[in-house]
Amino acid sequence: MREGTAPLIRREDYTAPAFWIRSVDLCFDLDPAKTLVINRMQLERNVDVPAQPLKLHGEDLSLTRVLVNGESVSFRHDDGMLVIDSLQGVPPGPFTLEIRNTCAPEKNTHLSGLYTSGGGFFTQCEAEGFRRVTYFLDRPDVMAVYTVTLRANKQAYPVLLSNGNLVEQGELDNGRHFAKWHDPFPKPSYLFALVAADLVAREQWVTTRSGKNHLLQVYVRRGDLDKTEHAMNSLIASVVWDEARFKLPLDLERFMIVAVGDFNMGAMENKGLNIFNTKYVLANPATATDADYLGIESVVGHEYFHNWTGNRITCRDWFQLSLKEGLTVFRDQEFSMDMAGSASARAVKRIDDVRTLRLSQFPEDAGPMAHPVRPDSYVEINNFYTATVYDKGAEVVRMMQALVGRDGFARGMTLYFERHDGRAVTCDDFAQAIADANPHSELAPRLGQFKRWYSQAGTPKVSARGRYDAPTRTYTLLLEQSCAPTPGQADKQPYVIPMAMGLIGRDGRSLPLQLEDEPMPPSGSFPLDRVLVLSEAREFFTFVNVDEEPVPSLLRGFSAPVTLADGLTDADLLLLLQHDTDPFNRWEAGQRLALARLLAAVRGGVELALDAPFIDAMRAVLRHPTLDASFKELVLIPPSEIYVSEQLESVDPQRVHSAREAMRLQLAQALRDDWAAAFEASQVHGGYSPDPVSVGKRGLANLALGMLCMDSMARGDTVWPGRAYQRFKDAGNMTERQGALLALVGAHSELAEPALARFYELFKNEPLVIDKWFSIQATAPESNGRVLAKVKSLMSHPDFTLKNPNRARSLIAALCMNNPAAFHRADAAGYVFWADRVLELDPTNPQLAARLARVMDRWSRLADPYRSAAREAVSRVAAKPDLSNDVREIVTRALSDA
Ligand code: PHE
Ligand code: ZN
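Above: inputs. Below: predicted complex with phenylalanine.
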């Protein structure tokens, strides 16, 4: 048992429920102050487990009555549960339980359960929010058929929605009306949803391959309809894609998306009634950036794909969360790649995903919150909606696809649905289906070992050494793997690591890959690209008929979530940057060249001074006649401060920041004319479209403009800041407008202030744009400690509130997570600010507070004086007696990492 009151929940303690709930009839009388819920359930005792009393979850509810088969029964409250002892050992077969309770939606600041936002009612039930609506067996392996009646004032809440199909609606007395919904699919309570609000919808009918018609709807507040086109297009594309790629059709007559302004996460896949953070729905060219458009496409896809992976087949228990999340992230990544089209645009998406993984999951896996993709224990499940469960989980699925092939993976998915449709299952069930559908694959014989990816935490490290033997014309690659201890796991067993690779000759040609004793394949030539499977701690792979000493290109496409130490020299990396046929490794070579220079400067405590070969290589990329703009942009952005810091044993964030800023300035100066040329060449004319080519050009133009402004300011020249200001004023879309604003802010131009003021005036009625306005100021480059002071003063801006999660994140999380130089101050003021905000947020919204608390995960890696000041701040939070379980779990774990 841990400190505090909340017990540790363990995976090994799983037992099936003592009762099943087969159907639920819910009736809501919606009122912000006091909503009445009548909950009539059909239950059955689970005869497979020993007879026990019925224990129902319930949280922040007032209970008014309990009837079993129409008769009142005695009950008690125990350990936060409603217990009915008389049901112990009821005869097998169905009985009814009717519960009446009330709750107070307008007082629900946790945004879990039933709450109000912008004058409407919304629910959020994952993971354990349904117990804040009514008493229930609130666990994902209890699946029931829901019928829901909503009653509310018609004028205030003209739209009444729940899961499934609308079966009845009509008028009631006193200006009220009702709607009755029925969802034919049995579902766990976490997928329940209701909405009652004054909304309007964009609608679209689609026909699926079977010839059935389906109604798609995107509901938003009045006035936002002009920002729903992209979400609707993304939804249509998702429906088409899932049917084409995985033969998974839309199984509902009606599929609804509802946008809400107050939401803790990105979006929620409630059956047939997805509820979204407005950030992932609303977009028009004037208010949303290219990144926002891409985010909407991927989140709309993600939630839609959950309809099969998550809803049709769900999780047996919350330890299996990655069963739905890892798989669905993998699916949304594949969707976005397929939507991107060209090989280069696909690679850009892959690079973005890997950057995200390295930025959030790698640090998580190396810190106090490290946990397996399928965790073994938790205190608060909300803390385990993590980069590991989502993004590393997706990489695990991706590796399976690499081991069984794309078609084999599709076959595995088909078998998975044949076996488990309509059930609540485990990660083992999924992996077994993929392997069983591919008995002759690389996966099947090693499935047990492969599943260590689910059970062992930590990022494995692969070391590679190559040796060329000229007389025998052989090249031998030694691959070794290891994985550092993580909390509770001292020793790790070897993983199954798919290592996509190629060999490159000195002239840049890809060499044929013939392993020792390997016969000529039927195609008549050896491949130029292949996947080695590393499964021992140490393995040799010998290639024959190799004409010259090659440069190995390993871990192509980032084929496994590992770190790679291959000992390549600058010359090798320059060759890969120029010639690798794998775009991921080409990008990676550039990043590694930059990283080596940053690390040398930081470790040596010396000023960074870029060398000619590096600058020439970057210039060659920038000037390249055929490379895409978005790829150039990615190569020319140096590794992030967080990624650089993760490579260091002891981190001085200020030094990391200075080194990276020096690199940016020197690139700005050394490539001045090339930036100007790239800027001119990357102009997009005509109407706005978020296609990959235009997105790439706008991205490169924005980067170039930032560089040109930085260089101008350093020279005391005002031409480029002037042009940036002009572009800011004239911009036809938010991507260019924000890009120009960021260029001014980033260069400390005196035009930044007037631009910010103008930006506010233009968009003061657009909450999502005002979030950007706060963020831009919170992530402004540090100068003399002014950013923190600015953020503090912005907290009293009339538009600021901690109650809205997007707004809170836009200022507080933006500073603490995305502005290391402003946050990690030698005077500890950033940490004090952090602790104050965590403590302030915790009573109202513990989930949000716990996310912010995780900023300090890596405190023990900091160099002094940061380290001791950070520990003090974490200790101060931990010392508060009535902390939520959410925050307590995070800070307790952090402090154990000394
Ligand atoms: N299940 C949601 C998703 O991944 C995320 C979520 C979790 C939303 C918990 C709200 C609460 O799409
Ligand atoms: Zn999800």
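The CA atoms of residues 163 and 272 lie 5 Å apart.
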